[in-house]
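Box S2. Input/output pair 1.
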Amino acid sequence: MYMTSNPDRYSTLIHYKSFIRIHVFILIFLLFAAYNPVITSPADAASTGHPRLYFTSADIPALQAKMTAPTTSAVWAGIKNEAMQTSFPTDTTDLITAHDRLEYASFYYAVTGDTTVGNKAKGWLLQVCTWPSWMSITDGHIYYSGGLVPVAVGEAYDWLYPLMSDTERQTVRIAIIEKALKPLQAEYKNGMYIYEAKNNRGGQLFGGIGVAGLSILGDEPSNPTLDPYMGTISSLMRDYVNAYDQNGGWSEGIAYQFHGLADASGALY
């Protein structure tokens, strides 16, 4: 686990990292609030190419313009700072750092085309695919942080797609299936997460793994529809959304609501 020995420090770290993590979504949502691609089948998903999760190649010029725009330049500075980091965790003892470094370096490449940063991120992506597990286990079950690595891997697959060979792409797809989709399916079948839609862990875990699945939907010849995994995630995310009060309230309060949405927003979008 990556928890620190000081609970107050851990809480502060989580709040800070969640805020940094959602910067990418803030930038994208400012630009593409009305962008809503319709994907009706795995064949359609594959035909859209990559990137496709939150934006397409046609949107890159607008993103580049926002690098220096007054309303978003400070956000971009934070993204660039994280993308320029050179160290990376060697295992799951620091899932937050692994998430942030991989996500921001990959996004930076997607927007700028900087192959130095892109190849660094690809190296990290392939390194993560060699880890035995991406899950954080508590009391024998997947904890909410099990969504952190899958969401970053899914984004990296989407954004680094041009830099990877066919073999590398398949390596990532199989890792997503074996280390994210299958573990969540097993948890779902044993009933552990029937109640999780009512707290932030539902958004973070289901949403994070959902993004990973969406990134490869239609791409993997051995299971193009990702059955039954995406059906399960869709059902879980529906339960998560339905747990919101009619006025938008959340039973755990706004801080935990924010934590859940930090990762769920990518899958819901």
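Box S3. Input/output pair 2.
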Amino acid sequence: MKRSQTQRRRTNLNPPVKETSRKTIRVVLAEDQGMVLGALAALLEIEGDISVVAQARNGKEALAAVLAHKPDVFITDIEMPKMTGLEVAAELRRRRTGTRVVIVTTFARSGYLRRALDAGPDEEAVAGKLPEYWDFYHEVRTNYRSSWALGVRDLPAELAGGKRYLFVAWGDDRVLECRVLEESTPVTATYVLAADYQDWKALLQGYDALRTVMYRKLLLEQGDLLEFFKGIYFFVESLALIAAVPTSFPAAAELPASA
């Protein structure tokens, strides 16, 4: 029996659906705490297009796993035995593996900030500016004998709220002290500066350090303005180093309501 015109039209309006294949993202995980490592792996495996191809409990195992499996993404904790996540990431970049690196940490700790400041700008940053600029930077750094208290205003409740300062003291071409001051701790430094939480977040997520200072997002609250600006480029480069240390933020953080 011949089908009616209406039946043929209905058939044409419902063509077979073609399944589209999605590329599977291959992941290597590194975390020194077994329970956290297992939970993270289980959560990622729930996603249909993610495959955890290897897990590591220390930095050396992680590096070997990435080199062996050549994953699309390497997810690592920042603090691990034998090699830190930062050290593994640096080695992968040196070897040009092409693997994208995601470093997981709850807050950029003062020890890592100190190491980043002591190390100074990397080759990529140095290549982006004239040699005379870096001559001035090193001259200021060599003779710098001052301290900064870098404040964050209006922290969200998830980060304990209120205001906190990062204290950094310089001398002898290196960082003499680097620590986070609790809200109850008296703030004493050569220069005291502060910015809103959102401005710090923008800086740590890639906003330009020089613009942060020049557009008055980070304001000098205490200290001699003229003396501070004599070493402004050294300060800006140091601020960029602080911003480059991996830091994560609470996804659900809410800012305090404005008065």
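Caption for Box S3: The radius of gyration is 25 Å. The beta strands are 25-30, 50-56, 73-77, 100-104, 147-153, 164-171, 174-181, 191-196, 219-222.
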